[in-house]
Amino acid sequence: METLLRVENLGVHYGTVRALYETTFELGTGSICGLIGMNGSGKSTLFKAIMGVIPAHTGTVEIAGKEPYLARKNGIVSYVPQSEEIDWSFPVSVREVVAMGRYRGLGITRRLRATDKQAVEHALERVELTELAHRQIGALSGGQRKRAFVARAIAQGARLLLLDEPFAGVDKRSESMLIQVLKQMRSEGSTVLVSTHDLASLRAFADDALLLRQTILMHDTPQAVLAPENLVQAFGMQVQAGADSGASDEQTRREKGE
After folding, report:
1. Residue 102: exposed, middle, or buried by beta-carbon count in 10 A (0-12, 13-18, 19+)?
2. Is residue 221 in some structural domain?
3. Is residue 64 part of a domain?
4. CATH number at residue 58
5. Overall domain count for the chain
6. What is the pLDDT along the chain (258 residues), one digit of tens a residue?
7. Where is each ABC transporter domain found (predicted)?
């Protein structure tokens, strides 16, 4: 399997706070990897470092052999942040959000070509949002919003998709639909890194899993990673694999590593 994402000895600091250290792993093409860890373990920081939107103090990140900036510029990687990081009041329609995935290479006019419009409509169909494409993005449910941003990544043709808590606050139908879309993207050769607190569903969609606590504690199959002794190491307490791991540590929610 060809390596698409390579992270080596990555370290990130926020002032004197060490958010990540000695973080090393690789992901191959056509795979789905779950990222799990308690609040404050550095999951969101890891995503942003992979995207290159925050600086690495140590180590390197390569996406398809390119540094993060070039990978973003070439449309190789797409990032769907947590819902609270997005201004849902912004006056933009669902179709316009998806069309943003085609802006690369359009120039300052951003005038969509016929092929771009086809890609947008195809992406909307994939996530079953065609009938809601005219609506303002903030008027959608939580699950529908997440599907819209996944559609943007599909329209973009991204080879690497980073999803930060896509199942948080969504209904079961949207979660099932999102998982199905991610599996389809995997079958087409895309690589997906998805953080989740829903440990119970991890086995249903992930090929492997990363256990994070400021560094990678383990990278293996979901079944191996979710062993009780590994979860104790990551969360500092007993956690059931069928539980919501986000409830394990409220205080760390305020840390800058998450």
Report:
1. buried
2. yes
3. yes
4. 3.40.50.300
5. 1
6. 799 999 999 999 999 999 999 999 999 999 999 999 999 999 999 999 999 999 999 999 999 999 999 999 999 999 998 876 777 888 899 999 999 999 886 666 678 889 999 999 999 999 999 999 999 999 998 889 989 999 999 999 999 999 999 988 888 888 898 999 999 999 999 999 999 988 888 988 999 999 999 999 999 999 999 999 999 999 887 666 655 555 443 333 334 444
7. 5-239
